[in-house]
Specification:
The longest helix is centred in the middle third of the chain and has 50 residues. The chain is an all-alpha fold and about 500 residues long. It is built from 20 helices and no strands.
């Protein structure tokens, strides 16, 4: 039955892709669905794009292992969407066409800024895609009892199909279907979990506290063993990284006007907040109470079958039996597929629109040529992320997402904010700060304990902090401002004069 529900989700999403492919005839259709998506519809799609494997699987795993500190991951989206709603949505819709680079190039030199923007988008999206592939591989491994490597190849193949064939229209409807399934599925999971305890929340909480251990970290901070500086750095990366996520920014180009863009963000924030509350107060503690130390959900080594990322999936079996286990597994898989499609489309758009059409072809590429390059890029991208998914097997999904978001926070976020709100930004300043933010975020991530020790096997990290965003974001902002201040070039004068377009209504 579990496998049947899983296959049903796959068939539904493939059907959506086939229908969308028949309606995708131009670059505008492929990249932004010709700007025809409504506000509420797009809000569900944004929520579907945002609520990734980290939301359902990774954050539940952090609650399961570390307890209360998961609130940092759950609170960041609220702050991020506040920034989007009040500072960015209007300008994103007014100035953007297909990608974030369209906004930056409205006032800065086009060729270098498109190269920078495409580079940051690719770095961000490839890492984020890898995270989703890890989650999907673990899920299919548990569900089908097949090898993790085979599971990764299956998900990568489906990603290629969705993006290469259907574009933004298919991606949008896959995300909407996923969002509805996730909302209903988690509401039922929370209800069944409470019903298991006769709707007595205090009983649930008491058992969860007892199972979590005597440290009390389920009810208070400290489980992640973060210093204050590390906690601030983590929150910085999560919040500003979400604002700078290219796949979320693209969604504001799919609506007809700025008012609809704002409505989309409000709807998305409402849906995301509802899901986060269910995970933090019911599903996470429920997994601790019913799955932790339960031999039914342990492998031969005494560890959680499929890793800690699977605890919410095991909870569904504990409270709902095999049928509900199949439904929640299908929901989790749909969650991953939707986010994978959105991320892949952002990468494909950066290559086909920013690099190929605007840089290599100087704006003279036809719509058919852009579509062809997009589909070739989708295939290449699938191969790359499959390899990374194999390398990062068993790493915590939410932790990997935090490292990925550090890239968006260190590059796209300062670039967007300063482009839109600071008249003094110049092309040279943007390039120096953007490159420094990108390189520092990646290098500090690799040298930190998450990769240098846990993945590469070294005994001690070179960079001691687990979360690099605070340093890389500060470096990017500082260099963008300082270099722009001292830039006296002819291009700098044009850049400053071009700020007037940001004030136009």
């Amino acid at each position: 039955m579990a496998i049947g529900f899983f296959l049903l989700v796959v068939l539904i999403t493939i059907g959506i892709t086939i229908v969308a492919a028949r309606r995708t005839r131009s670059a505008a259709d492929y990249f932004v669905a010709a700007g025809s998506i409504g506000g509420i519809t797009n809000g569900f799609a944004i929520a579907g794009d945002f609520m990734s494997a980290a939301t359902l699987l990774g954050i539940s795993a952090i609650l399961f292992n570390a307890g209360y500190d998961a609130v940092i991951y759950l609170g960041a989206p609220i702050a991020a969407f506040g920034v989007l709603i009040f500072l960015l949505t209007d300008k994103l819709k007014e100035l953007g066409r297909y990608t974030m680079a369209d906004i930056v190039c409205a006032r800065l030199a086009e060729r270098p800024m498109r190269i920078l923007s495409a580079s940051t988008t690719l770095a961000f999206s490839i890492m984020y895609l890898m995270v989703q592939i890890v989650g999907a591989g673990s899920l299919i491994e548990v569900l089908f009892q097949i090898d993790y490597a085979v599971a990764v190849l299956i998900v990568s193949g489906l990603m290629i199909l969705y993006v290469a064939a259907g574009g933004m229209l298919a991606t949008t409807w896959v995300q909407i279907v996923k969002a509805v399934m996730l909302l209903v599925g988690l509401a039922v999971l929370a209800t069944l979990t409470l019903a298991h305890f006769d709707f007595d929340f205090s009983t649930l909480r008491a058992l969860a506290d007892a199972k979590h251990g005597g440290d009390g970290f389920l009810a208070r901070g400290g489980g992640l063993d973060l210093s204050l500086l590390s906690a601030v750095s983590l929150a910085t990366g999560l919040c500003f990284g979400l604002v700078g996520s290219p796949h979320l920014i693209m969604r504001f180009f799919t609506v007809p006007d700025a008012a609809t863009a704002r409505q989309s963000a409000v709807v998305a924030l409402s849906l995301i907040s509802f899901v986060n509350l269910l995970i933090f107060f019911v599903i996470g503690p429920g997994a601790v109470a019913l799955v932790k130390a339960n031999p039914d959900y342990l492998d031969a080594n005494g560890s959680i079958a499929g890793g800690a990322n699977m605890v919410s999936i095991h909870l569904s079996r504990a409270v709902g039996g095999e049928a509900f286990f199949g439904i929640i597994s299908a929901v989790a898989f749909a969650t991953i597929l939707a986010v994978v499609a959105g991320l892949a489309l952002a990468s494909v758009s950066a290559v086909a629109h920013d690099l190929y059409a605007k840089v290599f072809r100087s704006g003279h590429a036809t719509s058919a040529e852009q579509l062809r390059v997009s589909r070739i890029t989708a295939v290449a991208l699938g191969i790359v992320v499959a390899g990374l998914g194999l390398l990062f097997e068993r790493q915590n999904i939410a932790y990997l997402v935090s490292l990925t978001l550090a890239i968006g926070a260190s590059t796209n976020f300062p670039l967007l904010i300063l482009t839109i709100y600071w008249p003094g930004l110049t092309t040279r300043g943007a390039l120096v700060g953007g490159c420094a933010g990108l390189v520092s975020a990646i290098v500090l991530t690799v040298l930190g304990p998450g990769v240098w020790v846990n993945v590469l096997g070294h005994e001690e990290p070179i960079f001691p902090e687990a979360y690099p965003a605070l340093w890389s974001v500060a470096l990017a902002f500082s260099l963008m401002i300082c270099v722009s201040k001292f830039d006296a070039s002819t291009q700098a004068k044009l850049d400053r004069a071009g700020f007037s377009i940001m004030r136009s209504e």
